[in-house]
Write a structure and sequence with these properties.
This protein is an alpha/beta fold. It has twelve helices and twelve strands. The protein folds into two domains: 123 residues, Aspartate Aminotransferase, domain 1 (Alpha-Beta Complex); 230 residues, Type I PLP-dependent aspartate aminotransferase-like (Major domain) (Aspartate Aminotransferase, domain 2), CATH 3.40.640.
Length: 373
Amino acid sequence: MTEQMGFKPPPYPYDRLDELKPLGAHHRGGIVDCSIGTPIDAPPPAVVAALGGSDSERGYPPSIGTPEFRETVSGWIASRLGCEVDPNDEIAAAVGTKEFVVGLPHWMKLRRPDRDTVLYPAVSYPSYEMGAILAGCRAVPVPVDEDWSVRLDAISDEDRARALLLWVNTPGNPAGGLDDLEAAAAWGRTHQIPVFSDECYCEFTWEGPPRTILSAGTQGVVAVHSLSKRSNLAGVRVGFYAGDPELVDYLREVRKHAGFMVPGPAQAAAIAALLDQEHVDKQRDTYLDRLRRLATMMETMGVKATVPRGGFYLWLPAPGGDAWGFTRQLVKQIGLLASPGEFYGSAATDYVRIAAVQPDDKIGLLEERLGTS
């Protein structure tokens, strides 16, 4: 009897880079891995102290976040982003934000079983598409313009009629685009489609101040934030979502039943991190310096490279449009491991992403190998 097979997960994108690593084994000091946006710098000591000294590890934490956590988030949104959001009705905790991104289509499909489509930028974080696939939904990429901003006018009438939600991402991963968030909110309200705005890189906006979709009000929109990038806390897995009270309430209740809880010590660490802007300002300077150094190296190699409008990734056109070939060249020539653009959508197959996450001494190794130090 032939066994019936259901869903078979595709290879995880970054696992596909393992076969390239031996190409750079000859470099003294090893490979400099700039393929994944994993923070490498230390979080502030006060945050680490809060993680270990909260005395909150024994009891179950509130799924929606402690009152202190939600009030701190509300205060941070007001002081940093200039928006008033009610900590009681419009904010909740998330276990990092990747699980939120991937799980959201499933929860939204339960809410609107008559709709089946997730809209997301055509060049973007792969979890938007995968979340739709895992929920049994249509994953429909929305074209982006020459500045890597989502083109709302390119959404077809059919896709709009079937849409569960629209994702926007500002600053965008991988290309650093800045969407018109006010226009996205207006589009969603006009068509009665919830708009979810992934803003986890907002502290690393290089053109102007940090942006949020909440500036246009909370009706029909939800902003998603993470402490992973802002405060180098990717291993702690804590973030939050804020916005439309009806949407937030629905998601809070569903996620409560599903057992999603940010550990109490993680919430305590997040509170300490959100109350400290100094370490973020220092991190901004660090990332901007690394981006500039990496851009100079790429220009030396004859590749056009500019600092993005936001985020901490260089987004480069691959010579000859051969992204995998250029990725291999970088590993062989200077021991730099990057990510081919196809990881971020079929519209990006001729680009390469380099994450400016390695420490200064590692970037110095690359400069030495290239002869630019």
